[in-house]
Each structure stands twice: as C-alpha cells, then as structure tokens.
Amino acid sequence: MADFTPEERAAMRERAKEAKENATKEEALAQVLEKIAKMDPADRALGEKVHELVIKHAPNLMPKTWYGMQAYSRDGKPVIFFQDAGKFKARYATLGFQDSAALDDGNMWPTSYALIKIDAATEKQIVALIKKAAA
Predict the structure, then answer these.
(1) Spatial contact of 45 and 79, defined as CB atoms under 8 Å apart
(2) Distances in Å between the alpha carbon of 132 and those of 38, 58, 88?
C-alpha cells in the first residue's frame, strides 16, 4: 500500500463523507463557497474567479465539493474542479477537467492546467474550456 500524505488522507476522508451526503443544490453551493472562503488569499482569488466563470458560462453544472475541492458536476459526475495550491502544498493551483468534460482533441489533450493568475487572456482560455466542458 502506498504511503499517503496527511493531506491526501484528509482528501480521501472528505470524499467518503461527500459520497454519503445527498446535498441539495443550495447546500452544495454553500459547501463550495465555504471551501473557497477557507483558502489562502491568493488561492481564494483564483477560486472565486473560477467559480464566477463556471456559474456564468456553465449554469447547467451543479456546484459541489469533490475530495474537499470546489467542483462542478453534471448528472452527479464531476466535470470541472479547482484544486487550490494549499490543498496539497503545491507550487500552483490546478484547474482540472474530468473525462465527462469531453475535451477530446486528437490522440492526446490536457485535462488539467497550472493556474497562478487570471488575466484577460487566461480568462478567455478558461471560458472556452468551461463552455466546451459543459456542452
């Protein structure tokens, strides 16, 4: 059995708890906003912006937590997630997409992106990915 970091074990415990819950959309949204509020300031700014963009450009996706991270799902399956850098003591935050996002592009394509700042050009890229993922 692999050795997991304390942060990884905590994420697994959070996922087990999430799997047992059957939160309403309002409760799930509150949980996502609570996770964002607890992030370090730099991560919180990114998490808030990602949340704003997903809500605006993919209203069909439901906010939820997934392994203790903010995520957005369709039919109960995560499509988009944001992993703040502090979650696993990483160098950068990650904007990720699950296979249900169907970002397929040839034989190989990215499913996660390092994210350190959202400027106008980055926002445009994120919006395009969100729209494709939510389609």
Answers:
(1) no
(2) 29, 9, 28
Q: Do the beta carbons of residue 98 and residue 81 sit within 8 Å?
A: yes
E strand or H helix at 120, and its extent? Answer: helix 120-134
What is this structure's pTM? Answer: 0.88
Phi/psi for 31 (5° steps) reads -65, -40
Phi, psi for 120 (deg, rounded to 5)? -60, -45
Closest CA to 112 of 94, 132, 127, 92: 94
Q: Which amino acid is at 108?
A: M
Kindly report, residue by residue over 69-84, the tens digit of the pLDDT: 999 999 989 999 999 9
